[in-house]
Amino acid sequence: QCSACKWLGRYRTVTRESLSLLEEMGGQYAENTMVPFPGPLYNSIMKAEVEDKVKFLVLTLEHIINLMDDTEHMDLVKWNPKTVEYFLKVLHRQSSELKECEDQYQQSPHKESYKLKIKRHFRTLRKILKKERYSAQAWEKIRRA
C-alpha cells in the first residue's frame, strides 16, 4: 500500500481534527451563514482514483491555507488567534504529507476538471469577503464553508 493510501485511510480522523478546530476558533455556526459549497464535486472525487483524490486534496488545502492565512484582513473577526494559528499548522502538515504522496504520481495527460471548479469555488469565497469588506460576518461565512 502506498503512503497516499495510508494517509487517505486516516483522512476522516485528520479532517475531524480540522473541523473541530474550525468550530473551536469561532464557536457555534450562525444559522444565516450559508454559502455555496461544491458538494457534487466532493462526491465525485470520493469515487475517483487515489491519484486524483490526493491531487484534489493538495489543491484544496492550498486554497484553504491561502484564504485563511490572510491576517491583514482579519481585524474584525473575533476568533481565537492561537486556534487559527494551530489550524493553519495542521493544514500545512496535511498539505506537506500529501505533497510527498503526490510527488509519486506522474503528470496526468488529461486536464483534471476539478482544478477549475475548485478555483472557481475559492474565487467565490474571496468575492464574498471583498463584497462584505472582510467583516466578521463574512469571515463566519468562510469558516462555515
From the alpha-carbon coordinates, what is the Rg to the nearest angstrom? 16 Å
Largest sheet: none
The portion of residues assigned to helices is 55-70%
Which topology does CATH recognise?
Growth Hormone, Chain: A
CATH class: Mainly Alpha
GO molecular function: cytokine activity; cytokine receptor binding
Protein name: Type I interferon
Organism: Cirrhinus mrigala (Mrigala)
Keywords: Antiviral defense, Cytokine, Disulfide bond, Secreted, Signal
Structure description:
Its main location: secreted. InterPro entries: 4_helix_cytokine-like_core (IPR009079), Interferon_alpha/beta/delta (IPR000471). This protein has one domain (8-144): Growth Hormone, Chain: A, CATH 1.20.1250.10. It has 7 helices and no strands. It has 145 residues and is mainly alpha-helical.
What's the layout of helices and strands?
Elements: H1 3-9, H2 11-26, H3 39-46, H4 50-68, H5 81-102, H6 113-131, H7 136-144
Short description:
The chain is an all-alpha fold. It contains 7 helices and no strands. Helix 2 runs antiparallel to helix 5 (81-102), helix 4 (50-68) packs antiparallel against helix 5 (81-102) and helix 4 runs parallel beside helix 6 (113-131).
